[in-house]
Amino acid sequence: MDAPAIRWGVLGPGGIARDWTAALHATTASRVTAIGSRSLDRAQAFAADFGVERSHGSYAELVADDGIDAVYVASPHSEHREHALLALAAGKPVLVEKAFTRNAAEAADVIDSARERGLLAVEAMWTRFLPHIDVVRRCLEDGVLGDIRAVEADHGQLLYPDGPRRLAAPELAGGALLDLAIYPISFAYFVLGGFAAVQATGTLTETGVDAGETVAVVGPRDAIGTLGSTMLAKTPCAASVSGTAGRLEIDGWFYQPNTVRLIDTDDRELDRYDSPSREHGLAYEAAEFARLLTAGKSESDLLPLDETLRIMQILDDIRAQLGVAFPGEG
Ligand SMILES: NC(=O)c1ccc[n+]([C@@H]2O[C@H](COP(=O)([O-])OP(=O)(O)OC[C@H]3O[C@@H](n4cnc5c(N)ncnc54)[C@H](OP(=O)(O)O)[C@@H]3O)[C@@H](O)[C@H]2O)c1
Questions:
Q1: pTM of the model
Q2: Ligand 1 neighbour 76 (Cβ under 6 A)
Q3: Fold classification of 7-126+282-299 (topology level)
Q4: Atom of ligand 1 lying closest to residue 166 CA
Q5: CATH number belonging to the domain at 131-278+312-322, selected among 3.30.1330.90, 3.20.190.10, 3.30.360.10, 3.40.80.10
Q6: pLDDT tens sequence across 52-104
Q7: What is the three-class DSSP state of 173?
Q8: Residue 156's beta-bridge partner residues?
Q9: Inter-axis angle of helices 283-294 and 15-27, nearest 10
């Protein structure tokens, strides 16, 4: 939270843009200084709510704004490629909401553009930057759990059929996978360091996106992962990492600031870490981005772009197994 202050432009004044801006302003020195919308009225409404200096009625105007240091792309998945490329072409570094794009080919386009220009690009998988995940990272690096053998995580929210239209819409790359399952999948990838095999099964909505899926993975060293997601019910949203010497359990909701328990092989709780607050977790990714930008870095070691790309390839593979294709993705 002591990260240097930068000036943000927010692209798309939707639900997550509101939560993200509130977290940024509450807990960091950085500020949103410009908002861009397809509608000037919506941009001005957002600006009024958050004290943002400049409102733009188009994304092209936003990315051309000289008074911003970076762009937060907060549009639907289907638009991420176009909007991230727009910002990069205007010379602006980008923090792109998860899922980074709707498929791996689009992710590669954005990554190539950022690298060609030497501009910072980061996937806004906010969980990766949270303090309790740093605790998990250090436990893994220090070998506290012995050899890792299993990871479990789930993410279910009741979002269909009465939730946001975006989630039900194939043309906006809706569905549980890119919105919800990406959390357990990214978490398991981080824990295991990659997957040797991925097997998925699931169900589809009447609109043709995935309603939910169970994803079984095998890690590189005899580890298994059981990952679940649904947008038809609220599930515990808990996670665990088990090794030969003990396990870590993260209370639900594992993907936001929470408690991590270290449990031995006799089921005794040995230690625990409680996140300082459950609120404003979205600010950590923004703080990491500000640190990287100020240091002249072009990507994050906590979530490298090659890993973002690999995870998009895995999501493509899972979608192929489920039989979900988005219109217009080529
Ligand atoms: N990190 C998290 O916890 C979290 C939580 C929820 C969502 N997300 C991610 O954030 C992104 C946006 O989700 P959201 O729930 O905030 O969506 P949302 O509420 O629907 O907002 C999306 C915004 O994108 C803009 N937009 C641009 N092109 C659009 C199009 N073709 N159709 C609809 N809107 C369009 C709209 O603003 P204008 O039309 O005014 O320009 C809209 O306000 C997704 O990638 C999602 O996965 C992350």
A1: 0.98
A2: yes
A3: Rossmann fold (3.40.50)
A4: 20
A5: 3.30.360.10
A6: 999 999 999 999 999 999 999 999 999 999 999 999 999 999 999 999 999 99
A7: coil
A8: 230
A9: 70
